[in-house]
Design brief:
Order of helices and strands: EEEHEHEHHH
CATH architecture: 2-Layer Sandwich
Strand order of the largest sheet: 3-2-1-4-5
Structural class: alpha/beta
Number of helices: 5
Radius of gyration: 15 Å
Number of strands: 5
CATH class: Alpha Beta
Strand content: 15-25%
CATH superfamily: Ribonuclease H-like superfamily/Ribonuclease H
Oligomer: single chain
CATH topology: Nucleotidyltransferase, domain 5
Shape: globular
Distance between the termini: 20 Å
Helix content: 40-55%
């Protein structure tokens, strides 16, 4: 199974493609789609949409795992991330890939078994599970790897 993991954002969106075979993980690619603050917002969304489509065409995932939005304070940022997330979901839907959504809590539990795991613990666990020499970089990409691994573990964990 090939899973596209996505950590939504509009300034920096993390993505990963993880192949899972018999409980073994192979990281095919991870990185970040970045948009510059000087771009008008609709162009930022278009860049995200087009970039997701390129990833879909190249790697042809069977499933997409997208982290849900969690914001405590800044509603303006949350709304913009929600717009970006909508564009991402549209691209995935149009491509015909199955879409699965996970909360940050579900991702933490899937990777560490502990809902209050730190960002550092999640990054180290993704490195360990995928047998990587160094942690995925940037952090947004590491989060996207974690979201993909969360989906791979979903049948084995209670969410």
């Amino acid at each position: 199974m090939i899973i596209l993991g996505i950590d939504p954002g509009y300034a920096k969106l993390g993505y990963s493609v993880v192949e899972v075979c018999r409980s073994k993980y192979l990281l095919k690619v991870c990185g970040a789609i970045e948009t510059h603050s000087s771009m008008v917002f609709p162009l930022r969304l278009e860049k995200i949409y087009n970039s997701i489509n390129l990833i879909l065409e190249e790697f042809k995932p069977n499933a997409a795992s997208v982290e849900t939005i969690y914001f405590q304070n800044n509603q303006k940022t949350a709304i913009k991330v929600a717009h970006a997330r909508g564009v991402i979901i549209l691209a995935l839907q149009r491509y015909g890939v199955k879409i699965f959504e996970y909360t940050p809590l579900q991702v933490k539990i899937a990777l560490t078994g502990y809902g209050k795991a730190t960002k550092r613990q999640i990054i180290l666990m993704t490195q360990r599970l995928l047998r990587l020499n160094s942690p995925p970089d940037p952090d947004d990409a590491a989060d996207a790897v974690a979201v993909a691994v969360c989906h791979a573990n979903a049948p084995r964990i209670s969410l």
